[in-house]
Amino acid sequence: MFHRDNRRRYYRCRQCGLVFIPPEQHLSAEDEKTRYDLHSNSSDDSGYRLFLSRLFAPLHERLKPGSCGLDFGSGPGPTLSVLFQEAGHTMKLYDHFYAPDSTVLNAHYDFITASEVVEHLHNPRMVLEKLWGCLKPQGYLGIMTKLVKNRDAFAGWHYIHDPTHVCFFSRETFSWLAEAWQAKLTFIGSDVMIFHKETIN
Questions:
Q1: Burial class (CB in 10 A: 0-12, 13-18, 19+), 191
Q2: Would you say the pTM of this structure is higher than 0.85?
Q3: Closest CA relative to residue 51, chosen from 22, 26, 77, 25
Q4: How distant, in Å, are the alpha carbons of 73, 112, 198 from that of 94?
Q5: Is the sign of the CA dihedral 175, 177, 181, 185 positive or negative?
Q6: At a CB cut-off of 8 Å and minimum separation 6, what does 166 contact?
Q7: Among 35, 126, 43, which Cα is nearest to 77's?
Q8: How far, in Å, CA of 57 to CA of 197, rounded?
Q9: Which CATH class is domain 3-196?
């Protein structure tokens, strides 16, 4: 066990370093959506746009004009997709609760974004493998999420207090994924990761 508090138990994968909550401690889908419905993020919110620019800016500068992207986990107020559309790119949306058209996951994209969503995944490896498979050769997967630093910092971390957060990534976890995918990985700041699919696998 990696950590325990008065609400949940947290385990750490010995292979990739992912810290996770066991499934029996996950919220029901109804309770999870109730939490998300409380979010008030909007593309009209300049502060939210600035927050998302930490992922938008470095990913946009890597893209060819008119690229086609997927915003995975777009939420109740899609905004990251709006930023890319305003920059001349074409966007599709997928969200388990708010844009559940899974047919978009059968297409292939020049880039995929997942902002503040991977920490909510109940089966992170399966989902991330699916997204990686949706990328065209030379495509980019951009992720924004807070990172686990160490056990002591984790114990006092506000991020673990959100009951919808069920898995917690570290630099080690993303580096493990990059090696498995034979991808180039770039860490930007404290919470942005960009994978480049340099090979055709």
A1: middle
A2: yes
A3: 77
A4: 6, 11, 24
A5: negative
A6: 20, 21, 25, 26, 119, 120, 121, 122
A7: 43
A8: 19
A9: alpha beta
For the chain, 201 residues long, give each residue's pLDDT as a single digit of tens: 999 999 999 999 999 999 999 999 999 999 999 999 887 777 888 899 999 999 999 999 999 999 999 999 999 889 999 999 999 999 999 999 999 999 999 999 999 999 999 999 999 999 999 999 999 999 999 999 999 999 999 999 999 999 999 999 999 999 999 999 999 999 999 999 999 998 755
Length of the chain measured in residues: 201
Query: Within the chain, where are the H helices?
Result: 29-36, 46-60, 80-86, 124-133, 151-155, 171-181
Per DSSP, 100 falls in state -
The radius of gyration of the chain's CA atoms, rounded to the nearest angstrom, is: 16
Lookup: tokens for 164: 């919808």
3-state secondary structure of 200: coil
Q: Rounded CA gap, 98 and 72, in Å?
A: 11
CB contact at 8 A, 165 and 156: no
Tell me the two tokens of residue 97: 């609760």
